[in-house]
């Protein structure tokens, strides 16, 4: 048997074992832009393996003053300004040293982080907030509707730090960069989509840091209303550069591979920046909305098995 055949057999076995271990059926399945998605395939795509969640992805410039400092499957963004830096998402607490290393590898100081923002109140995005606060003294800013859930995230019993509570439409300013917080509830009550206009190569670009729009569990009428509002809000945002809380949501690996080896994307010298991807700004929203509608339809027709 060739290695490839052995690998294929092992892959099928791993899939089967995983399906068994995770238990329960995996539906609905939806086809969006020619690709089939199920709840489990989306989760697997987002999270990867345990190792992927903790392994450093080479840190890189995305555009303007925005850099990627997260792991292979959990996003963390550094926004650099002359008055100190902003970190968006600490991810799991065990990843904080990985993020520290990525910040240092880019030539920045971790202690220059003045503000810590979050995407949404789940451990894979904000469990490390207390550790980052401890290391940097950064001001931790949270969307009001996520505060209760955030406070319940207490790795090792540490209190979750929250220094400032904001609301839908509020902005965060530092060193000439303005980030606007858009409440896009559904995945969590305070799920926050952040937007910024950044300058690169003499042009302005609208960057959208999407919050997850993945529905989960029982869709109550309140959650259905939240998602319906959020899909509209997100689609109306001006967008040139779509980003997300998991790299797969904006096909980051594919885009990262296009960057010149060892170089930063510079539109003027190395061809177009792959992260400028206006055509795919709503791709992830299309997938999540199709899954949401299919899940809701199943729920309404009573298919729960
Ligand atoms: Zn989540």
Helix and strand topology:
Layout (H helix, E strand, L loop, with lengths): L2 H20 L7 E3 L2 E3 L1 H9 L2 H5 L5 E4 L2 E3 L8 E5 L2 E5 L7 H10 L7 E5 L5 H4 L2 H8 L2 E5 L3 H5 L12 E3 L4 E4 L2 E7 L8 E9 L2 E8 L10 H15 L5 E4 L7 H7 L8 H4 L12 H18 L5
Parallel strand pairs: 6-7, 7-8, 8-9, 13-14
Antiparallel strand pairs: 1-2, 3-4, 4-5, 5-6, 10-11, 11-12, 12-13
Helix pairs in contact: 8-11
Q: What ranges have pLDDT less than 50 throughout 5 or more consecutive residues? A: 6-21, 265-269
Determine the N-to-C terminus distance: 39 Å
CATH class: Alpha Beta
* Quaternary structure: single chain
Q: Which cofactor or ligand species appear?
A: zinc ion
Backbone CA Rg: 19 Å
Examine the secondary-structure arrangement and name the CATH architecture.
Answer: 4-Layer Sandwich
Strand order of the largest sheet: 3-4-5-6-7-8-9
Residues in β-strands, percent: 15-25%
- Which topology does CATH recognise? Metallo-beta-lactamase, Chain A
Describe the largest sheet: 7 strands, mixed
Please report the number of helical segments. 11
Indicate the overall shape: globular
Write down the secondary-structure element order.
HEEHHEEEEHEHHEHEEEEEHEHHH
Mean pLDDT: 90
Q: How many β-strands, per DSSP?
A: 14
| Overall structural domain count | 1
CATH superfamily heading: Ribonuclease Z/Hydroxyacylglutathione hydrolase-like
By helix and strand content, what is the structural category?
A: alpha/beta
